[in-house]
Amino acid sequence: MPKIQVVNMEGNPVEEIELNENIFDIDINEHAVYLVVKNILANKRQGTKSAKTRAEVRGGGRKPWRQKGTGRARQGSIRSPQWRGGGVVFAPKPRDFSYTTPKKVRRLAMKSALTSKVRENEIIVVDDIKMDEIKTKNFANMLKAIKADRKALVVVSENDKNVFNSSRNIENVKTTTANMINVYDILNYNSFIITKDALKVVEEVFN
């Protein structure tokens, strides 16, 4: 069972806790992670791109020249795809790119991502993150004290306005709640900072 040291906001060790081996010490399934990350990125797509086909471009109703006798290739419309200003062949249209992956695959991918963070020593457990006021400088000092990477994901147990607003103006730092984390964010950020309470929530959900 993996063990990890818990620190306070000043970066001082407080205690050592054991992580749930069913979540933080499994055989990493890279394919499951790939499938879920691909799904997350697909669901983020707006799907609003659009272009006009030859049927939708204005004009082109009259045949530009007669069929035979001119010496030129036959043409039926100046809005055909080969003409400048013509329609687009197989033009993209607004569509929904979202789909779902099986729940078991999502759970396996989450456990694999969390396990990778433990094995790469990129997880930092903080006993609690509390801000008396909305102060970006104080939050930045906390990240520096616990030796977090410049690109960090901070996970707390509940939506604390002071914590969220203090961190939102720091580049490459994202703060979220334990029930909103996803595989892409975990892998996309170098440091995975989580409070003890948020850790309990994660263990309850994915155990």
Automatic annotation (TrEMBL):
Keyword RNA-binding: yes
Signal sequence, start to end: none
Gene3D superfamilies linked: 3.40.1370.10
Residue ranges with Basic residues bias: 60-71
MF GO annotations: rRNA binding; structural constituent of ribosome
GO cellular component: ribonucleoprotein complex; ribosome
GO biological process terms held by the UniProt record: translation
Keywords linked to the UniProt accession: Ribonucleoprotein, Ribosomal protein, RNA-binding, rRNA-binding
InterPro entries: Ribosomal_uL4 (IPR002136), Ribosomal_uL4-like (IPR013005), Ribosomal_uL4_dom_sf (IPR023574)
Pfam families the record matches: Ribosomal_L4
Similarity-based family: Belongs to the universal ribosomal protein uL4 family.
Function, in words: Forms part of the polypeptide exit tunnel. One of the primary rRNA binding proteins, this protein initially binds near the 5'-end of the 23S rRNA. It is important during the early stages of 50S assembly. It makes multiple contacts with different domains of the 23S rRNA in the assembled 50S subunit and ribosome.
Protein name: Large ribosomal subunit protein uL4
Species, as recorded: Anaerosphaera multitolerans
